[in-house]
Amino acid sequence: MRDLGNVVILAGPNGSGKSRFLQLIEPTVSTALSAQKSAPRLRERMQRQIAAGAPSAAIGELQQQIDQALGEGRPDVTFDPGPASIVDLGPSVPSQINDPATHSGGDLPQILSVTRTGAFHQLYAAQHVFLRAIAQALFNSEHPRLRQDLDVQASLAEAERFNNLLSSLGLSEVGFDLNEREPRPTLFGRPVVPSEWSAGQRLLITWAICLHEQGVGRLAKSIVLLDEPEGHLHAAACVEVVEKLRGAVGNEGQLWIATHSASLVAHFGTASVHMVRGGRLTYAGSRLDEIIDGLLGGREARHNFRCFLGEAHLSSLARFAVESLTDAAVARFAKDDAQAGLLVASLRRAASDGRRLRVLDYASGRARFARALLERFGKQGAEAVVDYHTFDDRGSDGERNDRAASMAALYGEEDAQSRMHSHLTDFMPPNAVDVVVMCNVLHEIPPRKWRTLFDDIHGVLAGSGFLLLMEDQQISIGEMPHLGGFMVLNLDEIRVLVSSPLVEDAVPSTSARLTAFAIPRGVLQKVTQETLSEAVRRVRFRALGELRSLRLSASSTGAAGRQHAYFALLHANAALALEDFGTE
């Protein structure tokens, strides 16, 4: 095995010897390091013997010792520089976690002593007890009568070493709060309750405990051994936690992973893969097909899996195409809604001077943003930040009941009704609003109506107000809100539409897909038939360019296929709009 990278994958069937090879790493490396260190000293000693005129027999004996050391140390195993440590992170995750609530305070020291063995399953089961000991050490270090005690200082050093390990794995550090005057461990900003953690978090914490008990202060430059880390972990979580380990060991460290996981093999790439079969270890190379067959259950299983993926891609594309011939769906509230987060950030920036904003959610549908405001600010907090109203055309309003429920959750039933509007004239001065929000709305309105729409919005905005135009730049669900289909504009195209460079991102952009553009009131009446036609031409040109790029990339993934379908429809819809204008 030569020219190894910082990840080495050992793949093979059960019983092939993967775990045995992992077990050989530590003695092999230790012997090789010993040889590297002893051979130069022996050579130096031999040179002194030669200079002193020692008998040839004595010199020959030293040469024999050098040859023997290098022979036992396998001179093809070299390190430059040597690893900081060799760490075995044990087998996969067991299913049980120790619950300290089931133990008396007197037996916790006995449970904690189990962790000192470093056995992985015991460490996993007793992780809460270990964290409790860390919290106790941190608490004692702040006690004025205990902080000078040498044992307390030693325990604090161990606690800090453990927190450093957590940080290197991308986790928060252990802290503590007081529960009936007793220190209680906290992690992720909450009291420690392992059952609330994800499987990936539990595994990372157990690894940190394991590293701590093996005396590791840091993972940089270490060789880390993992035996089937995919056990009890979702594929994505497994890849995530192993990636955190790779980042922790750095480019001068190394991960050795014995695995049956096709997702791990795919993630780290073919150059990392070595095949274990019948107790023999070889670089995968041209035998990669054999490894993939083994991971997926044989040649027929691999064929079935390929067909399944292909059918999933085709099904996704077919569904998007069919959806693009149906009416637009109305979004529901979802916890941690990314667009809701974008709205909140935009409103916070607009109200940076502390004023309360009067906001009109245009075509609000189910008023999902009312629930988002409640989720993020609470009832009183939301009322202090925003005076929120909705507008929906009575003639096309099929979500009134859902909207009423959302508004009632934020304002109460009586106040909710007064905030739900079906006439824009309700907002004529002096009742003008500071912000009109249009989320996933403009692309559903025929472009020939945009000029009138912007005039109407201009009429309900206060002098310093603005239109907050929010869109998904690559809608994942196809739709045909009208015969012309959907039309999504980017920032440059919106600036062309209103003939103004004053349109900008409402908040610094964190996503190329979800956008929020702030359009000042003063430019909304600059839309003309010429600017409208030019904006749509630019949409058509952009869609055509994206189609060319996708075809040149020769990508056949489902994501690429979905993008191809989206931009093909966007190009067609732009052409239909220009035909409708009579300009093409």
Brief digest:
With 584 residues, this protein is an alpha/beta fold. It contains 19 helices and 16 strands. α5 crosses α6, α6 packs across α7 and α17 runs antiparallel to α18.
List keywords for this structure.
alpha/beta, Rossmann fold, 3 domains, 7-stranded mixed beta sheet, 6-stranded mixed beta sheet, 16 strands, extended
How would you describe this protein?
The chain has 584 residues and is an alpha/beta fold. The chain folds into three domains: 1-84 and 220-297, 3-Layer(aba) Sandwich (Rossmann fold), CATH 3.40.50; 91-218, no CATH class; 338-526, Rossmann fold. Helices cover 49% and strands 14% of the residues. It is built from 19 helices and 16 strands. It has helices at residues 18-51, 56-72, 108-115, 120-125, 127-142, 150-168, 199-213, 235-249, 262-268, 288-296, 299-323, 338-350, 368-385, 400-411, 413-418, 450-460, 491-497, 529-553, 558-581; strands at residues 7-11, 86-88, 175-179, 182-187, 190-191, 223-227, 254-259, 273-277, 280-283, 357-362, 386-391, 420-421, 433-439, 461-472, 504-505, 514-520. The strands form three sheets. Strands 12-11-10-13-14-16-15 form a seven-stranded mixed β-sheet. It has a six-stranded mixed β-sheet with strand order 2-6-7-1-8-9, sandwiched between helices. Strand 4 (182-187) and strand 5 form a beta hairpin. Helix 7 packs parallel to helix 8 (235-249), helix 10 (288-296) crosses helix 11 and helix 11 packs parallel to helix 19 (558-581). The chain is extended and about 110 Å long. The protein starts with 6 loop residues before the first strand and ends with a helix.
